[in-house]
Amino acid sequence: MTPATVMEIGRSALEVALIVAAPMFAAALITGLIISILQAATQINEQTLSFVPKLIVMFVTLILAGPWMITMLTDYIRRLYGAIPSLIG
Description:
mainly alpha, 3 helices, 0% strand, 89 residues, bacterial flagellum, elongated
């Protein structure tokens, strides 16, 4: 196993992790932005107000995107396990 191979495996692992986490990050970002705009418009400066909506939206996003996330992760693991013989020899 060469250093280039290790770097390629690490790069693809980070790529898959970012792709899988993107829906959750996007949901939290959009929800936080909407709540911040509402707080600025109503002048309610409560920091805990944004926590519950973010939690709910992220839970719904996990339910909706969960099967896709698991499929992406299992496909990556299958490709990685399938490449073990070529990585060793």
